[in-house]
Each structure stands twice: as C-alpha cells, then as structure tokens.
Specification:
Elements lengths: L1 E5 L15 E7 L4 E7 L4 H12 L7 E7 L2 E4 L17 E7 L6 H4 L3 H16 L7 H16 L20 H6 L4 H12 L7 H12 L8 E7 L4 E7 L3 E5 L9 E4 L3 E7 L2 E6 L7 E4 L3 H21 L5 H171 L8 H58 L3 H25 L1
Parallel strand pairs: 1-3, 2-6
Antiparallel strand pairs: 2-3, 4-5, 4-6, 7-8, 8-9, 9-10, 11-12, 12-13
GO cellular component, one term: plasma membrane
Keywords: Cell membrane, Coiled coil, Membrane
Subcellular location: Cell membrane
Length: about 575
Amino acid sequence: IYLTATASKMSILGLKKKQPKTFKVKVITMDAEMEFSCEVKWKGKDLFDLVCRTVGLRETWFFGLRYTVKDTYAWLKPEKRVLDQEVPKDSPITFHFLAKFFPEKVEEELVQEITQHLFFLQVKKQILDEEIFCSPEASVLLASYAVQAKYGDYDPNFHKPGFLAQDELLPKRVLMQYQMTADMWEEKITAWYAEHRGIARDEAEMEYLKIAQDLEMYGVSYFAITQNKRDTDLLLGVDAQGLHIYSPNSKLNPNKSFPWSDIRNISYSEKEFTIKPLDKKKDVFKFYSSQLRVNKLILQLCIGNHDLFMRRRKVDSIEVQQMKAQAKEEKARKKMERQILAREKQMREEAERAKEEMERRLFQLQDEARLANEALLRSEETADLLAEKAQIAEEEAKLLAHKAAEAEQERQRLEVTAMKTKEEKRLMEQKMREAEQLAVKLVEQSERRLKEADHLKQDLTEAKDAERRAKQKLLEITKTTYPLIAAYSTPPAPPEASDYESASTRLDFKDSDMKRLSMEIERERLEYMEKSKHLQDQLKELKSEIESLKLEEQQQQAGLYGLHSEARGYVQEPIKSFCLILF
C-alpha cells in the first residue's frame, strides 16, 4: 500500500509565500509502505507523528523509525532534525516503522488493536527469520493462531488440502529438523487450527503474542561486547526487564542478569560501559563495545526500556486510561457485533439449511409425484390386465366347477372301487389262507406219502430178500434130492399134491403182494402229481388275478394307491411263503 502525504507547516499568520524545500521519505511498516514529502527543517518527531497519525496509532511509546547505517542500524532521534542525523543520502530516504520497546505483559499493556496487529506481524517475522528461537511444538501452535487470524474459522468445505501451500508459517530450521512433507506439516497445523473456531482475528493475534512473550529471545536486542581488557567475547541483551550477559554461543540462558529495579546508574565513556547496582555492596560491572555508534544505541535502548519499566509501575496517565476505556468499549462493541454477526450467521446457515431441506423436499415431492403418475399409469394398465384376468378366471372357474363335478364323480367311483378293492382284498386274503391251509395239508400228505413209500420200499426190499432166500432154499433142496435117487436106483415117490400147492401158494402170494404194492405206489404218485398240477394251476390263476388287480390300481388316485399297495402286500406275502413251501 502506497500512501502519499504532503506535510507543510502552517503559521498563525497564514501560508508563506514561498514553498520551502522538501525531501522524500519512504516509511515501511509491517504491512504497508508510505511515502511522504517532508520539509527540510523537520525534526524526527515531526516525521514520527505524521506516520503515527497516518497509521492511526496512539500507543506511540513502543515504536520508532529505524534506518540502516553502514553495518548496523540506528533509531531516528525525535529532538534532532532528520537531515542532521546519519540517515542515508538516498532519495527517498527509507525508514522502517518498528517496535523499539516490548511490553512485559502484552495483554495488559497493548490497548489498541492496531498496536497488537503491528506487534503480531513483527514478532511473527522475527520467529520466521529465526531471530527469536522457537521450539517445533510452539512453532506449530503459533502457526495455527496465525492461520486463524488470517483465514478465520476453519471450514473443511472451503479450506481444502493445500490451502496453506503459499503461506510461510514455520521457521526453516524446524522444517529441516524433521523429515516431513509440506502436506504433513499442513495437516498438523490444520489440526490445531480447527480447535480455534470462534476466535476473532484480534483475539488470535493476542493469543499468538501471549505465547511468544514467554520465549527466551522475545524482545531482546543483542550486542557484541567484551569484558575488561582480556577481550573476552560476550553478548549484551537489552529487554523490558533489564540487562543480561550471555555467552557468544548461547542466547537463551544468560550468565548474569541486571534487572532494572537493581540498577542505580548506567554510564559510558567512549567505548566503556559501567553498570552500577543499587546495592552499593555489589561490584560495578564494566564492559566494552568496539563502536561508538553501538554504544549510543545501547544507551538509548537502556534509557527507553528503563523509562517504560518505571512507567508500568505508576498509575496510568489520563490519556492511557481514556485509551483503555475506549479500547474496552470498542472490544465490548466488537464482541456484541461478533455475537450479532454469529447469530445472523447461524440464522443464515439455518435458513440455508432450511432452504436446502425445502429444495430437497421439493425434489423429493416431485420425484414422488412422478413416481405416482407412473404408478397410476401402471395401475391403469394393471386394471385392464386384471379385467382380462378376471374374465379368464371366470371361465377357468366354470371349467374348474365342471372338473370338480367330474372329480366328485371320479371320487365316488374310486370310493366304490376302493370298496370293491377292499372286498377283493378280503376274498384274496381268504383265498390265500385257504391256499396256505391247502399247502400245509399237501405238505403233510406229501410227507406222509413219502414215509409210506419208504415203508413200502422197505417191505418190497424185505419181500425180494425173502423170495431170493426161498428160491435159494428150493434149489438147495432140489440138488440134495436128485443125487440120492440115482444112488439107490429107486425112483422117488412123487411129491404130494398138497406140498406143491403150498409152495406155489407162497410164491404166488409173494408175487401178488409185490405187484399190488407197486400199483399202490404208482397210484399214489399219480395222485400226487395231479394234486401238484392242480395246485400250480391255482397258483397261476391267483397270480393272474393279482396282475389284473395291479393294472386296476395303477389307474386309481394316489390316495387309494397306498391301500392297494397294502392289499398287494397282504396278498404277495402269503404267496411267497406258499411258494417257498412248495418248492
């Protein structure tokens, strides 16, 4: 931002006739650049007041205009003319508007919002430039407050991954210390950033400063010094609390400190500085600086910090009290405005949600209406189809009624058939029982006949043996009789007729018995064969009847099939047993 202002001195009598000579100045603040045309006779205070009025700053005692001189820097002195000081001879002359002195407690001492903002920007830059040491954990937390101050509340719909890619938020030392990508650092910062929801910009900047003021290097100005004549290198630190002596390699922990409340006097003679403690028993501390310009700067910072130290311990001036009251009212007003804004935002969000809900409901109702129309068309088509189906169903009902009547007739017929089947089953069972009884009788007769045949065969065998023995005896008798007749030459007397008759009768009896027995055996065998044949014929007839019953049962319903199967089981089981008996 470039602002150009022309400052001129107006006298009580009016404007001068001739415009005095001017020189150009460029003032760089932490967030803007301004250019002014200044009169040659202006003092440092005139330029400083102009800058403060332009910025709108009332807490002017913390700030100053700094410029570069050779290899160091210096602050513009308010009581001397600008051009009489060792300012650069460039055109325009460049000054930096910076905080020269730092408060002990930022929350109590910084009143104006612009003051807080300028301190926030300067401290943030010092941390990023590693002028103030900050641990990685504190750096991430400070970065999250800086993001809150810049972007406001976190919104995942708006703050997409990568939205911090162009922002410098962490010191390079911290980035190099860990092997983490930019996305990983952004994720860590965003996690803290999301926790700061509802914090305003000025509150976020104040939280940033409250954390930063606890850092060891916060608000400390360092200068290289030597102690006594041994040329021992040391560092002198000047801040709001006092003077500190550091080792060259350690700016965090001072070796020795001199609080402002314990210092009675500070003086320097050319390159030698003397610090006299308030307690006269303590030794005077002396140190040396190599440049006279640095000595003047050290003394200037010491005087300014000591004055502010004493000022903090006094009652605030009327101006400061008015500023604090105005700041309090301003904060209360802004807080109320934020609350109103938050309510309006909430109401707007609720209205937007309600609108979205209504639009969603409207779309839903439209979809439902479209689906209802489609369903209506489908229902009309379905009604036509149902009418056709009703007609078809009516015809099918008539056909089914006709089939039901036929089925009823068939059922009655099957009942009659079932009754007949039961009667036939009963008759079959009766026949089977008779057949079994007959088979048992035949088996018994067969066994009896076999036994009789065995007895007859035994009798026949005995008869044949008796005949054979009789014939043998007759031959023996005959052989014995004829030789005796020949010896005595006397003809034998003829046998008596009664003897011949008795012998022939015995032979004839034996032959007739044999024939009769053989005839009886043959007759019994023939009768047995006839009965067996008759029984086989009956079995064949019974099997044919069973086969016919099977064919009839296959034509009946499944309900009567079980009954028929049971009857068939009743019939087949005796037949099997009967056949086993026969064969």
